[in-house]
Design a protein that fits this description.
- This protein has 154 residues and is α+β, with helices and mostly antiparallel strands.
- The protein has a single domain, classed as CheC-like (Chemotaxis protein chec, 3-Layer(aba) Sandwich), CATH 3.40.1550.
- The protein is built from three helices and seven strands; from the N terminus they run H-E-E-E-H-H-E-E-E-E.
- Strands 1, 2, 3, 4, 5, 6 and 7 form a seven-stranded antiparallel sheet that branches.
- It starts with 5 loop residues before the first helix and ends with a strand.
- The model has no long low-confidence stretch (mean pLDDT 85).
């Protein structure tokens, strides 16, 4: 694929996330324009990206939206889903998104390494990066779900 620019990388990651959600849950989500008041939801799945462009992928959504997605992913009623189920589902979404983007970006599996995924959760979360990093945001949603994805490169 050559050396993609940051905007192309953002599009690849956003497309990978949309594909993962469609495959795992059957939900087709639209790409939404940035809102300008970027905020993080109460659950964030994260993964380090290592290669020519080092960075961090994070996917943020609220617990209610994740509960809906998780219900479809594991085939359980929403009220039966535990906190561990939510964490596992979000880690899997991050892992599959990064893996899908990796496949699109390079045929060489060693060209792009991934850290294990992890989840941060809580209220009024904020992530701050050092200055002069390239940050690309993607948003997917429909009437019921809103998912924010950010890739930060340094």
């Amino acid at each position: 694929m050559g050396e993609p620019g940051y905007e192309q990388l953002g599009a690849v990651f956003t497309e990978a996330l949309a594909e993962v959600i469609l495959t795992a849950t059957g939900f087709s989500l639209d790409s939404l324009p940035p809102k300008g008041d970027e905020r993080l939801f109460d659950m964030i799945g994260m993964m380090g990206l290592y290669g020519k462009n080092h960075g961090m992928l994070y996917i943020s959504l609220d617990e209610a939206a994740l509960r809906v997605l998780c219900s479809y992913m594991i085939g359980a009623a929403q009220e039966e889903i535990t906190r561990d189920d939510l964490t596992d589902a979000l880690c899997e979404l991050v892992n599959m998104t990064a893996g899908g983007a990796k496949r699109q970006l390079s045929g060489d599996e060693d060209a792009f390494s991934l850290s294990p995924p992890f989840v941060v959760s809580g209220r009024e979360l904020a992530l701050t990066t050092k200055r002069r990093v390239q940050q690309i945001c993607g948003h997917l949603g429909n009437e019921e779900l809103n998912i924010s994805m950010t890739v930060v490169f340094y």
